[in-house]
C-alpha cells in the first residue's frame, strides 16, 4: 500500500511541459530521492504531491488520512513579521509547549523556542522547518532541497538528522536534492527526473545508468563510492544488500567522527 | 452621549483603528500597501456613483472596491505585474470618479469630505456602519488568523496543511474593501492606508509575535485616533490628517526607541 502514488502525471506551465507522464509511488518507511538538473520539474512534482498544483493529466492519489510533513525550499520570513520559533511551530495548528520542545529536540535544535526565526543561522532555520514538519507526526516527510544555503558539514549533519528521524519515526522520506553524491547514497531509491523519469532504482543502478550519466556526467561516481558508507544504517539487521564499506578511506573516518552515530554490523 | 459630535467622532475613530489593526499587520507583512492605496482610490468612483444614484456611500464604495480587487486578482499574471494592474485600475477609477462627480451639481464640497474625511460629521447611522464593519473584519481576521499567517509565510506551506492560499488572499481582499469603505468617512480615501500601515509599522519593533504586534497596532491606532481628534478640537486642525500626524509621531517614537533598545 503506497502512501502517495502518481500515475501518468503531466503538468504544463503555459507552453512549457514541466512534467510528462510521471509515475511514482512512495511506500511506508522508504527514503526516495529525486535528482535532476535545474528546471527538470523536481519542485513541480513535490507541489503536485502536496496539492499545490493540479496536474493537467494523470492522477495523484494519497492514502486516506495520510499525514504529510513538508519542508519547503528556500523559505524566507519577511523581516516585518515578528515570529518566534515556538510560534512558527504552532502554525497552522496550535501545539502544546511540550510537543514543540520535543520536536525541536528531535530536529537537533533543542531550546530554541524563544528565539526569533530571523535570528537563526541557516542550519538552525532548516532544522526549525524540520521540527515543524515533525509535529504533524508525518508518515511521509517531504523535503525540497533541505540543505540550500548550508555548507558541506552542515549539509552532512542535516542529512544525518533526517536519517535519524527515519529511524526514530519510521516515516517515509521524499527528498529533492542537488547534492547527488551525499543524498543518493543515503537513499533506498533514486528517481532521476528531467521532465520525465529518466531512470530509477537503487543509487548504484541509477549512478551507472546511461541516462543519468548523460545528465550529470560520470564525475559523481567517485564521490558516490566515497560516501557509500552512509547508506542506511537502520538496515544493519537485514543485510541483504552489500554496503561495500570502504574502511580504508580517510574521508570515511572523518565522516564517521562527524556523525558519531554509526553502528556498523 | 451619542448626541455629542465629539463623542461620535471618538467612537468612529476607535472603531476604524480596531478594524485596521489586524488587517494593517497583514498589509505590512505581505507588502500590500499599494494594493490598499489602489483600493482606497477606486472608492472615489464608488462615492460618485452612490451620490448620483442617491444610495448609501458605504455600499457604493464597498461594491467598487470589491470589483477592483476581483479584476486585479484575475488579470494579474497574464502579462501584467500586480502593481501595473493596480496603477491602471486605481488611477483610472479615481479619474473617472472625479469626472463623474463634476456632472453632479452641488456635490463638489462633499467630494472633499470623501478625499480627506469628515469625522466630525459622523452620524449615528455612520457609527452603526463603522462598528458593524469593524466587528465583521475583526471576526473574519480572528477566524482565519492561523490560516492567514501560514499562507503569508509561504503558499506551499499552506497547501501542504490543506489551506488554499488563494482563498486566504480573497479573505484579506474582502476585509480590505470593508475597512476602506468604513474608514472613508473618518480619514478619507487619501489617508486610509496611513491608518493601516503606520500603527502596524510602529508596533513592529516592540513585538516578538504576530499576536503582540496586532494588539500593539490596535493600541497605537486607538491612541492615534484619540490624540489626533483632541488636537483637532484644541487647535481647530482638520481631523483626519491630525489622526495620521499623531500616528506618525508614534512611529517616530517607536523607531527611535526600537533602535535604542537594539543598540543596548
UniProtKB/TrEMBL annotation, chain A:
Give the keywords, sorted.
ATP-binding, Cell membrane, Ion transport, Membrane, Nucleotide-binding, Translocase, Transport, Zinc, Zinc transport
Q: Which GO terms describe its molecular function?
A: ATP binding; ATP hydrolysis activity
The answer on whether this UniProt entry bears the keyword tRNA processing reads no
Among InterPro entries, the record links this protein to:
AAA+_ATPase, ABC_transporter-like_ATP-bd, ABC_transporter-like_CS, Metal_Ion_Import_ABC, P-loop_NTPase
Q: Which Pfam families match?
A: ABC_tran (PF00005)
**What's a BP term from Gene Ontology annotated to this protein?**
zinc ion transport
Q: Which SMART domains match?
A: AAA
PANTHER family per UniProt: METAL TRANSPORT SYSTEM ATP-BINDING PROTEIN TM_0124-RELATED (PTHR42734), ZINC IMPORT ATP-BINDING PROTEIN ZNUC (PTHR42734:SF9)
Q: This protein is called what?
A: Zinc transport system ATP-binding protein
Lineage of this protein's species? Bacteria, Pseudomonadati, Pseudomonadota, Alphaproteobacteria, Rhodobacterales
From TrEMBL, chain B:
User: Keywords on this record?
Assistant: Cell membrane, Ion transport, Membrane, Transmembrane, Transmembrane helix, Transport, Zinc, Zinc transport
What biological-process terms (Gene Ontology) are attached? response to zinc ion; transmembrane transport; zinc ion transport
> Is this entry keyworded Nucleotide-binding?
no
Q: How does it sit in the membrane?
A: Multi-pass membrane protein
The cross-references to SUPFAM superfamilies, in alphabetical order and at most eight, read: ABC transporter involved in vitamin B12 uptake, BtuC
Transmembrane portions of the chain: 6-29, 41-72, 84-107, 127-145, 174-201, 213-233, 239-262
Report the superkingdom from the record. Bacteria
Q: Where in the cell is it found?
A: Cell membrane
Among its keywords, does the record have Cell membrane? Answer: yes
Pfam families registered for this protein in UniProt? ABC-3
Q: Name one GO cellular component term.
A: ATP-binding cassette (ABC) transporter complex
Similarity field:
Belongs to the ABC-3 integral membrane protein family.
Question: What exactly does this protein do?
Answer: Involved in the high-affinity zinc uptake transport system.
Protein name in UniProt: High-affinity zinc uptake system membrane protein ZnuB
Q: Which source organism?
A: Shimia abyssi
- Top-level taxonomy: Bacteria, Pseudomonadati, Pseudomonadota, Alphaproteobacteria, Rhodobacterales
Amino acid at each position: 500500500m503506497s502512501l502517495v502514488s502518481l500515475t501518468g502525471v503531466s503538468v504544463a506551465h503555459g507552453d512549457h511541459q514541466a512534467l510528462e507522464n510521471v509515475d511514482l509511488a512512495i511506500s511506508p518507511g522508504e527514503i526516495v530521492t529525486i535528482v535532476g538538473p535545474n528546471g527538470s520539474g523536481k519542485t513541480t512534482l513535490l507541489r503536485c504531491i502536496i496539492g499545490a498544483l493540479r496536474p493537467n493529466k494523470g492522477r495523484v492519489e494519497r492514502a486516506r488520512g495520510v499525514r504529510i510533513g513538508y519542508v519547503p525550499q528556500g523559505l524566507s520570513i519577511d523581516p516585518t513579521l515578528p515570529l518566534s520559533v515556538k510560534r512558527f511551530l504552532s502554525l497552522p495548528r496550535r501545539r502544546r509547549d511540550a510537543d514543540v520542545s520535543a520536536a525541536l529536540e528531535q530536529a537537533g535544535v533543542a531550546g530554541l523556542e524563544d528565539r526569533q526565526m530571523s535570528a537563526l543561522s541557516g542550519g538552525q532555520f532548516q532544522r526549525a522547518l524540520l521540527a515543524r514538519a515533525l509535529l504533524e507526526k508525518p508518515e511521509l516527510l517531504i523535503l525540497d532541497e533541505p540543505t540550500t544555503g548550508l555548507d558541506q558539514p552542515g549539509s552532512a549533519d542535516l542529512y544525518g538528522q533526517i536519517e535519524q528521524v527515519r529511524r526514530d519515526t519510521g516515516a517515509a522520506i521524499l527528498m529533492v536534492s542537488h547534492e547527488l553524491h551525499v543524498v543518493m547514497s543515503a537513499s533506498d531509491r533514486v528517481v532521476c527526473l528531467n521532465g520525465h523519469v529518466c531512470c530509477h532504482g537503487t543509487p548504484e543502478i541509477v549512478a551507472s545508468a546511461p541516462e543519468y550519466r548523460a545528465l550529470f556526467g560520470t564525475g559523481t561516481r567517485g564521490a558516490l563510492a566515497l560516501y557509500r558508507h552512509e547508506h542506511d544504517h537502520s538496515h544493519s539487521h537485514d543485510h541483504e544488500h552489500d554496503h561495500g564499506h570502504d574502511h580504508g578511506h580517510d574521508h570515511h573516518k572523518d565522516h564517521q567522527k562527524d556523525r558519531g552515530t554509526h553502528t556498523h554490523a | 452621549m451619542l448626541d455629542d459630535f465629539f463623542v461620535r467622532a471618538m467612537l468612529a475613530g476607535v472603531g476604524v483603528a480596531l478594524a485596521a489593526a489586524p488587517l494593517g499587520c497583514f498589509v505590512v507583512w505581505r507588502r500590500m500597501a499599494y494594493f490598499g492605496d489602489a483600493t482606497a482610490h477606486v472608492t472615489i468612483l464608488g462615492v460618485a456613483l452612490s451620490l448620483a444614484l442617491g444610495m448609501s456611500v458605504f455600499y457604493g464604495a464597498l461594491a467598487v472596491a470589491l470589483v477592483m480587487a476581483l479584476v486585479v486578482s484575475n488579470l494579474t499574471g497574464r502579462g501584467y505585474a500586480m502593481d501595473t494592474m493596480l496603477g491602471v485600475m486605481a488611477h483610472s477609477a479615481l479619474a473617472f470618479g472625479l469626472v463623474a462627480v463634476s456632472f453632479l451639481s452641488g456635490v463638489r464640497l462633499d467630494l472633499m469630505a470623501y478625499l480627506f474625511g469628515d469625522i466630525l460629521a459622523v452620524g449615528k447611522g455612520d457609527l452603526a456602519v463603522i462598528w458593524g464593519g469593524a466587528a465583521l473584519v475583526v471576526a473574519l481576521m480572528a477566524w482565519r488568523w492561523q490560516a492567514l499567517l501560514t499562507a503569508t509565510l509561504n503558499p506551499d506551506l499552506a497547501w501542504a496543511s490543506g489551506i488554499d492560499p488563494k482563498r486566504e488572499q480573497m479573505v484579506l481582499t474582502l476585509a480590505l474593501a470593508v475597512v476602506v469603505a468604513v474608514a472613508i468617512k473618518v480619514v478619507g480615501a487619501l489617508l486610509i492606508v496611513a491608518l493601516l500601515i503606520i500603527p502596524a509599522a510602529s508596533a513592529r519593533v516592540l513585538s516578538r509575535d504576530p499576536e503582540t504586534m496586532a494588539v500593539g497596532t490596535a493600541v497605537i491606532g486607538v491612541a492615534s485616533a484619540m490624540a489626533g481628534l483632541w488636537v483637532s478640537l484644541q487647535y481647530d486642525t482638520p481631523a483626519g490628517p491630525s489622526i495620521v500626524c499623531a500616528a506618525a509621531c508614534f512611529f517616530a517614537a517607536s523607531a527611535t526607541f526600537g533602535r535604542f533598545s537594539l543598540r543596548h
